[in-house]
Design brief:
The chain has about 160 residues and is mainly alpha-helical. It contains seven helices and two strands, in the order H-H-H-H-H-E-E-H-H.
Length: about 160
Amino acid sequence: MAPDATHPHAALLSELTRLMSRWSSLDLQRRITAECGVSLDPVAVRAVYLLGVEGGGARPSVLADELHLTRPSASKLVVRLTEAGLAERRRDPADRRAATVELTETGEDVYRRLFSAGVGMVDAATADWDPADVRALGALLHRFVGGLLRPDPAPGNREE
């Protein structure tokens, strides 16, 4: 069945898809890392972003889920980040049997440089915007993402 282009949310989904595709493209990620003087593959960049945005540690299984990796691939990623001095394993304070992966000071510096490059891109894209429009977009995106990340109700509790 073909998508309904007349649906009220079709244009929003189309623009979000274009944005996510471009933002996560290998070419753009390589350009950003080169401009920041960072030598990381795109998956490692996403892991640094994830750990930096969350501001704490994540279990390797969470990294695997969030980055759409197999558990063995996530384990190899953690080894690469650790060997590069960007992350370290620590005991999970909530479960001493488990470990979390956290950015080191070097990893936090890399995260700040990558994040700053992203802010620069957003700044350039909105350079001719009214500052109130930039703030409004930020508020609307915050609200939108909150709606997307809200846990689904239990199947029996869904409103039809």
